[in-house]
Design goal:
The complex is a heterodimer of chains A (114) and B (114). Chain A has 114 residues and is mostly beta strands. Chain A has a single domain, classed as Immunoglobulin-like (Sandwich), CATH 2.60.40. In chain A, the strands form three sheets. In chain A, strands 2, 5, 6, 10, 11 and 12 form a six-stranded mixed β-sheet that branches. A four-stranded antiparallel β-sheet of chain A has the order 3-9-8-7, with no helix packed on it. With 114 residues, chain B is mainly β. Chain B has a single domain, classed as Immunoglobulin-like (Sandwich), CATH 2.60.40. Chain B is built from no helices and eleven strands. In chain B, strands 2, 4, 5, 6, 9, 10 and 11 form a seven-stranded mixed β-sheet that branches. A four-stranded antiparallel β-sheet of chain B has the order 1-3-8-7, with no helix packed on it. Chain B is globular and about 40 Å long. Classes of the chains: A mainly beta (114), B mainly beta (114).
Chain lengths: 114, 114
């Protein structure tokens, strides 16, 4: 069965420090992977995706993610966290059996402290 | 410029009283999705359209219906809302390309059932 896992419910980091939000996946074949961010009372916003090519993907707001096939991971990173990065982050993988559907992880709440 | 618009942003309805949520898009995307999201959980897909081709999720209750009269508009009808249907409802769109494209989300409609 296809799935994504976000092992941390919450990540706390001080402003200015690097941040990592973890995601691992389980799919057959090559995965299409996505990160979305959700601010309070808002819809999800697309951050970045990995489809093919360079394992390091750069996205919006200074975020990047590294696709690691051997570790089946797609961790989201940012070199220097901002208080405004505090939000709920979702990792997702394309549902290979169903075209354009996504399978979402359970979400990780990122809290950046001043 | 708003690309996926949801109205209303907040909706209060009474137990058992039918309610309709609306979504419109200016992206001309052929795929439209309706998700239900409860208290910071992952969005749960209710159904989606490829153009006018309707795809229902197996576990979507019969109480939930949808209409897509044209490319731009999509409606979610809840025939007899129960207290358990209180949630954020998210509309999203994408351009069909075998799952490579990201989804664009609206801001959501928060439904309260009294």
């Amino acid at each position: 069965a296809q799935s994504v896992a976000q092992p941390e419910d919450q990540v706390n980091v001080a402003e200015g420090n690097p941040l990592t939000v973890k995601c691992t996946y389980s799919v057959s074949g090559n995965p299409y992977l996505f990160w979305y961010v959700q601010y309070p009372n808002r819809g999800l916003q697309f951050l970045l995706k990995y489809i093919t090519g360079d394992n390091l993907v750069k996205g919006s707001y200074g975020f990047e993610a590294e696709f690691n096939k051997s570790q089946t991971s797609f961790h989201l990173k940012k070199p220097s966290a901002l208080v405004s990065d505090s939000a709920l982050y979702f990792c997702a993988v394309r549902d290979r059996g169903r075209g354009d559907k996504l399978i979402f992880g359970t979400g990780t709440r990122l809290q950046v402290f001043p | 410029d708003a690309m996926v618009i949801q109205n209303p942003r907040y909706q209060v309805t009474q137990f058992g009283k039918p309610v309709t949520l609306s979504c419109s898009q200016t992206l001309n995307h052929n795929v439209m999705y309706w998700y239900q999201q409860k208290s910071s959980q992952a969005p749960k897909l209710l159904f989606h359209y490829y153009d006018k081709d309707f795809n229902n999720e197996a576990d979507t209750p019969d109480n939930f219906q949808s209409r897509r009269p044209n490319t731009s508009f999509c409606f979610l009808d809840i025939r007899s809302p129960g207290l358990g249907d209180a949630a954020m409802y998210l509309c999203a769109t994408s351009r069909e390309q075998g799952g490579r494209n990201e989804q664009y989300f609206g801001p959501g409609t928060r439904l309260t059932v009294t």
